[in-house]
Amino acid sequence: MKTKEKEFDAVKMMRDIRDRLSERWSNNPELEMKDLEEIRKKYNIKVEKKDNQVLVT
7 in helix, strand or coil? Predict the structure, then answer.
C-alpha cells in the first residue's frame, strides 16, 4: 500500500516544538517558569498552590 505525501505533519511539528523547548529549558530552568507565567498571564489562568500540589482553574 502506498501512502501519499502529507502537506502538513502535525505530529512532526509537535515533536520539533517539544524538542526545541526541552533543549531551551534544560539550558536555563528558570526560563521555563518565566514562560509558563507569561502564558498564564496571557490566557488569564489562575493557579492555586495547596499542600505541594498545583491546581489550575
Answer: coil
Report strand pairing: 53-56 vs 47-50: antiparallel
| Cα angle value 11/36/39 (rounded, 5°) | 80
Residue with cell 499542600: 51
Question: What number of other Cβ atoms are within 10 A of residue 37's Cβ?
Answer: 12
Kindly report whether the global pTM for this prediction surpasses the value 0.85.
Answer: no
pLDDT tens readout for residues 8-28: 899 999 999 999 999 999 999
Instruction: Mark out the alpha helices in the chain (DSSP H runs).
Output: 10-27, 29-42
Separation of alpha carbons 7 and 9, rounded Å: 7
